[in-house]
Each structure stands twice: as C-alpha cells, then as structure tokens.
Design a protein that fits this description.
mainly alpha
Amino acid sequence: MAQYIPDILLWLFVINHGIAFGAGIYEQRVILPQWFSRSSESGIRVKCAAMRSTDTGRRFWAFVTTVPLTLLTLANLVVAWQSQGPRHEWWLGAAVITLVERMATFSYFIATALRLMRAEALPSAKVEAMASQRLSRAVPTTDVVVIPAANHLTAMGHPKFGEALLAFLLKQGAVVR
C-alpha cells in the first residue's frame, strides 16, 4: 500500500488543481459580475455587500484550495523531492510553483479580499492606496504556470484571475460602494 501513496498524492494534487480551475471559470463568469458595476460618471464600482453575501472565500475556496490544496502542496513537495524518474522535475516544479502561489494567496489575496469586504467603512482613497501598495508586492498569476500551455485565455478562467482583477480595478480608481 505504501508504494501507491506517491501516485495517490499526485493524482489528488492534479484533480484539486482541475477543480480549482473550473471553479475559477465559474467565479469569473458568474460571481465577479455581481461584485462590480460600471457607470459613466463614477466608473467601476465595487459592491462590498455583494462580496460579503456571496463570501466565496469561506463558503467554497476554503474547502477546495485554502486547506486541501495547501496540505496537498506540502505533501507533494516532500514526495516529489524524494521521487526519481521522468516526472520528478515536472512534479517538483509544479509543487514549488503552487507553494509560491499558496504563499501569495495567504499573504495578499485573502487579506485583500477581507479588507475589501469591509471597504465601505474606509475612505475611497484609502482603499485605492491599499490595493496599489499590496499589488506592487504580489505576483497574482503564479499558479497559472502549473497549467500546461497556459496563455491569456486559460489565465482568465483561473481562480486567482478574479482576485488580481479586483486589485487592478482598485488601482485604476474603482469606486467602492
């Protein structure tokens, strides 16, 4: 049974990435339009109440990526480091890239999303400054690299695309409502 553990961990890692990718497409197509509105006089507006009511971070992503993908990443790092054969480099590379993405998620994306859910209590200039400052330290597309042959079309469906888009919109002067 112990000889199957590396294969099981790798399959769980790949399947979890696939689920996260599909969920990211759903979030981009269905959830993000609920969080933003556009008007000619005020530009793009962030709907904080809609972000709080859907709260996809705690209702969905915590059970798909925050906990499981993080644990799978750590386990796969250990097993991939010890592996040999043709899949060693790709497996280790995917695990390292996902680890970088997990660190960016915990240090930037989750913190920014939580602040934006409470953003109407802050002045608009403070929200814009917060997004600009945090954006300069983030690499929002790191785990897109895990997907083979990723390009701008696959990146748009990625779960972190919405979070990166939100930070970008705030940097461009989006109005928080």
